[in-house]
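Okay, any thoughts on this one?
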Amino acid sequence: MTLPCVSWQRRSVFAAAVTVLFTACASPAPPELEERIARAGRGHADDPAIQARLFEVEAAREHERSVTPIEDFECRVGNRWDGDNRVRLLSRVPVPDPFRLNSQRATRRAATEAAVARLEGTALERSADECFRGALSGLHRQLSQVYQLYAERQDLLLKWSEEGRRSGAINEWSALRFAIERKVQLAERIPRLPRSSIDAPAELPAVGQTQPPLRTDPDWLTTLVRRQHPDVALRTALASRYEALADRAASERRPWFDFVDIAYQFNQAQQNAVSGQLAFRVPLGAMSSAGVGRYEALRHGQARDADRTTLEQTRAAEWALEAIRRFEQDTPLWQELLELASRADVVAERWWQGRLASPEEAADLFDEAFDARSVVLEARVDAGLAGCRLLAATGVALANWPRGPVLAQDAPIGRREGDTTMGLPQSVTPFTPLVSDRYPSNPSSSGTYK
């Protein structure tokens, strides 16, 4: 007796009509969202944190695609014998609420946006981490080259002092004191950096490259951070989700159809009958009203949190831009120090080879040349680290940062529908994560790197 019910369920004209009438299949993700996902995963294919975020995005998208107006409906069959065999089939079909369906779509789309923002945040954290390690790596390489030349000259000076001691030109006391002093100077100047930072691929800002000033106008910078930073995108997506949940709670206060019953009865005498009933849901609204207030409060909280994040990251970007501006402004000083260091090497070597100065005097001049180069390297690494902070605050690498006067086409910035440049102005290209999977770091849900 169950076969007629199964056949009737498959051929339910009413259920099919309702499904067509209230089609709620999730719309495909916009191209802009696809581009953001692809860009965030680029260069980090083997990173466990990125892989975890990609699975979260896929889970959110599957959840979004699963929105349907009718998941199932109830089918009953009954048999009564009173001299005649009567069979009664009953189908109870829920009536979908279009307002709740729209809210459900918006809620799940916002959850997908939040998952993508977390993915972007983790990718940006990885890129910033690579940048910081790369700056330290550049410092280590440059300082190692300077130190190697310095150490070779110190060894020659020690040999010269030892020759003077043996010949009697330098007494034993002075030679021993000079040897200890040189070894101490060598030990103090040895480049010391964590081993994990040595091989990171990056370069320090160069000295002597004249470029137009970086663009720093506050309104443009604030808008860029608001539209570009993954933390702000995450807070905005969560605010949209709470807004959709508030709309859903508000829709529950409206009366709506609950379900439709359709009954079909037949017997052996071919006396068939069809009946139906329609049920209404009339909510009182107490709990749903409380839910609306709760979700509205959460939405406002996320919106204010987005403002806070925008302010913090804008300040970080302003600090980084000011540090880079000072470094570039002092370019003549860095060039002069490097020129003086080169001249000091030449003079010290000439006086040493001609025995026109003592080992101590030549060593002091080599020390001062080393210190001059070290000061320039410290300034370069400070500017490099500021560039990394700029990347972490805005998602834009220093190499892609716009320079020169404000352009008219740069005014409308922001992430827009169909915008594959993450809302950057035409003179800015979006960040591409640095290619590396060798340096795991702590992933955070927000992706903030300070």
